[in-house]
């Protein structure tokens, strides 16, 4: 009886906790098209200011790749009112921290400040948007920075090229086919006018969302936003071509030789629906069930029990137009990558032919409940979620309702989606191999 009472209490507490996580926000547009989202939380004297631009590697010219990632760096170089090298000093002297990141569909900049420095954050982001200096000195400096980043993360990093190799083979026509970091040859040959044109096209208020989350007063903040961002001119409307990929109907085989590794890997990549579609949520559950973490089916089977694999790789890529599910492993001992592939295929086939157990299903639900709560546990996380839900999923309120999608997914749906997308003839098989040494 006590056990039942405890379980009931725990379930009630969990429901209360989740409902307490509801994020209240306000959103509106400035006259220049900048979308604004405000989430007020005065429980701690911290505030996040962030701007997400709807520009990623997919928006690049195929002959000028790497621009979106390059701009992630370049737009810290300085502005009309901020000297080169001063950006970091301004943030640090106001007790803040900042960062930025780029992916296939968007570029994101943010600062976290004590709440009394909110105006500094708004000023910095308005300067980045209104008064950036796209000059030769900054371009040349950041070319070196990006080149060094590519050396560290891709060229000289074990398994560092797998993401680019998967994309290259998974897409034929869509601009997802090149990696986010792009080609350094393209950056090296680009002119200053090329960079200025990219900035003028994509870094405009009607291609961005500003989020302020944390400790602030709404009326005062709205006035500051209008003062700093209102005068920025609206940009030309951006026309994005709708590029559709033909379905993969026959297994595509690829090999890549990496001089930085000694242990080969097998990677199986499936093209899946864009991140806002229901089937994409089901794929996320499948990924977690099969291959995410040490409690996943493949890890327990291949690493813990059979000791066939050194590691299981799981790389779900959520993106706006198409997503992808990548699963693989590194063999250990006398096992080969083909042995690993066979075991992975057995587990996928089980998923397609049998319902997962009620116990595993409940464990999945618990994982996604925890992820949902954790994602919204800080104003920094809330700011990112609000921006991404608005920009890439066209529904800001997913910050509150997305967990309901996961809750509504059934075991039967998991089986059907696995059948639909995880077919052998619809995938890329990438053998990621140590570089062959010349016998001579």
TrEMBL record:
InterPro entries: Metalloenz_LuxS/M16, Pept_M16_N, Peptidase_M16, Peptidase_M16_C. Residues 190-367 form the Peptidase M16 C-terminal domain. Keywords: Hydrolase, Metalloprotease, Protease, Signal, Zinc. Gene3D superfamilies: Metalloenzyme, LuxS/M16 peptidase-like (3.30.830.10). Residues 36-176 form the Peptidase M16 N-terminal domain. Belongs to the peptidase M16 family. This is Insulinase family protein. It comes from [Muricauda] lutisoli.
